[in-house]
Design brief:
Blueprint (H helix, E strand, L loop, with lengths): L1 H15 L68 H21 E13 L5 E11 L3 E8 L11 H5 L8 E11 L2 E10 L7 E8 L5 E8 L6 E12 L5 E14 L1 E18 L10
Antiparallel strand pairs: 1-2, 1-10, 2-3, 4-5, 5-6, 6-7, 7-8, 8-9, 9-10
Length: 286
């Protein structure tokens, strides 16, 4: 039974960690993608080393804002449960525009994956794969070094760029400015209005100066059976042509099938290569 349950954990991680961000597999506890300039060193708490600081707040403890919007969504919840829904809408608009712009400009892409499963005896098992995208063929995956069970997953171009977010699908609250991964970010809390495996509850850090995802941490809103919990922690970095791309993804799954079993998988994305098209002015991303 133990082997069967372990396989189910691996399968849940591989099959469901794709949903909220569009990628499979689990990542380190902090879920931060590794960049070409960042190693994968872990701190004592199991998180990759990072210069984090608390987010700044005015004296009253609330993010500074003169604007408030009490609009309600169809489910009766405020369009943004934070004190500044206007600011939230502006941040999400810029964030989503960056993802849409990247999708429209990327002609082809290639990246290597390193998948790592920690074992109960303290050792790890590793496998490798390559993702290749083109407009004509979509996303394809080649397993170059097998070594782990259930190396399946739904990969698309958006899965590498981050999920698009809206106040129609999430209750969003602004929580201030915070440094994450060495980048000053807007910190937003998210609660999924749509309770399914494609949405999540958690936190996203959006780069302040050049909007893009820096880190996403959360749990799948309604994990599919037999999973009772699926956690995700994804880290992004500015890659070729200044496009934000996932660098590391840690996923954790807990299943209940006669006995409870937990599993973790880490995926690191290395050596991105992109071909991009010019915009309407003939300018290429830098």
């Amino acid at each position: 039974m133990l082997n069967v349950t372990t396989s189910l954990v691996s399968l849940a991680l591989a099959a469901t960690l794709v949903a909220p961000g569009g990628s499979d597999s689990a990542m380190p506890a902090d879920g931060k993608p590794a960049s070409d300039e960042t190693d994968c060193a872990m701190a004592a708490d199991g998180r990759p080393a990072s210069g984090r600081s608390g987010f700044a707040m005015p004296a009253d403890g609330k993010p500074a804002s003169d604007e408030t919007d009490c609009a309600m969504a169809a489910d009766g919840k405020p369009a943004s449960s934070g004190p500044d829904s206007v600011r939230v809408e502006r941040i999400l608009a810029a964030y989503n525009a960056g993802i849409e712009r990247a999708i429209s400009r990327i002609e082809s892409l290639r990246v290597e994956q390193v998948l790592i499963d920690p074992q109960e005896d303290g050792t790890t098992k590793e496998a490798r794969a390559v993702l290749a995208y083109s407009r004509s063929r979509g996303m394809e995956r080649e397993i170059t070094e097998p070594g782990l069970p259930h190396m399946v997953g739904r990969y698309t171009l958006p899965s590498l760029l981050g999920p698009e977010l809206s106040t129609e699908e999430y209750v969003v609250a602004y929580e201030g400015i915070e440094e994450e991964e060495g980048v000053f970010c807007h910190r937003l809390s998210l609660e999924a209005r749509v309770r399914d495996a494609d949405h999540f509850d958690g936190t996203i850090w959006v780069a302040r100066d050049r909007p893009g995802p820096v880190r996403i941490v959360g749990r799948v809103a309604d994990p599919p059976w037999p999973a009772t919990m699926i956690g995700l922690d994804k880290a992004f970095a500015s890659g070729p042509h200044g496009i934000w791309l996932v660098r590391r993804h840690s996923g954790e799954a807990e299943l209940s099938l006669l006995i409870r079993k937990k599993g973790v998988r880490h995926i690191f994305y290395e050596d991105y290569w992109l071909e991009v098209s010019a915009d309407s002015t003939g300018t290429y991303p830098r």
